[in-house]
Design brief:
It contains three helices and ten strands. The chain is α+β, with helices and mostly antiparallel strands and 358 residues long. It has a domain of 112 residues: PH-domain like (Roll), CATH 2.30.29. The strands form two sheets. Strands 1, 2, 3, 4, 5, 6, 7 and 8 form an eight-stranded antiparallel sheet that branches. The chain has a two-stranded antiparallel ribbon with strand order 9-10. β7 and β8 form a beta hairpin. Keywords: Coiled coil, Cytoplasm, Phosphoprotein, Synapse. It is found in: Cytoplasm; Postsynaptic density. This is Homer protein homolog 3. It holds the Pfam family WH1.
């Protein structure tokens, strides 16, 4: 791109994406950070282009034509298709306001490109009504930043006075310091990301442990309820009276048979009394053991409930810490974007100053 014939007319910062050429469905990010995306006007050819550089590589080099359409797909994301490049570009902005400004400028440039094409076909003077400029009236335009009012930066033209050696050294020093600051901000940003990932992992582990403890608590409660029912059944069984044993004999039996029958019944009564006594003792023993188990289970339930409350407090603290870390990451990312944007502007200014030097 020749800076002598092309001038920036609008600039903003956004995360740049390109459609996956294999699937035509998924987005491929151009980098980890937001990039500067600019509209340029070529006064010689009366052409408008959208350009975004990633280092020395052109991430976006799209010539705006009248048949292009910029589509807002969400509050902070928009896209357009470039048939010449055989791809679809996507931009993710920091706010809806930035997206709206870029979309309005796209429509404005598109209309200017349409009018320029019509004028060119008619053989008249190549004008740009949408931007209020002609092919012979394009001055070194100010770079309007989409970050809001008060952030306008004016590029110096080639006709400006050439800086002296001391000024060039000062600019080189500022550029070097900006590069060091960029590395420091990136290191801090990745450290905060790592901390956030660790907190997220700890939170997931704590959630899993809490779910497991809840399952154990429910199982213990069910077991305690079953044992209580068993105790109630044993108490009801112990309270029941043994059935009375009686035998009616006909009046025709002899006295000896009656005496033998009485003795037999007496023995049966003694046997039944012995069995009943043993059953009651066994029932009492089982009931005591069951009551002891119930008490142990209740104690265990209390411990589990205490652990559950402690875990819930830990989860809440982890959530608070994670939100704090996330806020720090957001602040660091915003500061890093500002630093990178300032560094990019400083580099462009240094390049223009170097070109203007004799």
């Amino acid at each position: 791109m020749s800076t002598a014939r092309e001038q920036p007319i609008f600039s903003t910062r956004a995360h740049v994406f390109q459609i996956d050429p294999a699937t035509k469905r998924n987005w491929i990010p151009a980098g980890k950070h937001a990039l500067t995306v600019s509209y340029f006007y070529d006064a010689t050819r009366n052409v408008y282009r959208i350009i975004s550089l990633g280092g020395a590589k052109a991430i976006i080099n799209s010539t705006v034509t009248p048949n292009m359409t910029f589509t807002k797909t969400s509050q902070k994301f928009g896209q357009w298709a470039d048939s010449r490049a055989n791809t679809v570009y996507g931009l993710g902005f920091a706010s809806e306001q930035h997206l709206t400004q870029f979309a309005e400028k796209f429509q404005e440039v598109k209309e200017a490109a349409r009018l320029a094409r019509e004028k060119s076909q008619d053989g008249g003077e190549l004008t740009s009504p949408a931007l209020g400029l002609t092919a012979h009236q394009v001055p070194p335009s100010p770079l309007v930043s989409a970050n809001g009012p008060g952030d306008e930066k004016l590029f110096r033209s080639q006709s400006a006075d050439a800086p002296g050696p001391a000024e060039r050294e000062r600019l080189k020093k500022m550029l070097s310091e900006g590069s060091v600051g960029e590395v420091q901000w990136e290191a801090e940003f990745f450290a905060l990301q790592d901390s956030n990932n660790k907190l997220a992992g700890a939170l997931r582990e704590a959630n899993a442990a809490a779910a497991q403890w809840r399952q154990q608590l429910e199982a213990q409660r069910a077991e305690a309820e079953r044992l209580r029912q068993r105790v109630a059944e044993l108490e009801a069984q112990a309270a029941a009276e043994p059935p009375a044993v009686s035998e009616k004999e006909g009046p025709s039996q002899s006295l000896e048979q009656l005496e033998a029958l009485v003795q037999t019944k007496d023995q049966e009564i003694q046997t039944l009394r012995s069995q009943t006594s043993g059953s009651r003792e066994a029932a009492d023993t089982e009931r005591e053991e069951t009551q002891q188990k119930v008490q142990d289970l209740e104690t265990r339930n209390a411990e589990l409930e205490h652990q559950l409350r402690a875990t819930e407090r830990s989860l809440e603290e982890a959530r608070v810490e994670r939100e704090r870390a996330r806020a720090e990451v957001g602040r660091a990312a915003q500061l890093l974007d500002v630093r990178l944007f300032e560094l990019s502007e400083l580099r462009e200014g240094l390049a223009r100053l170097a070109e203007g030097a004799p």
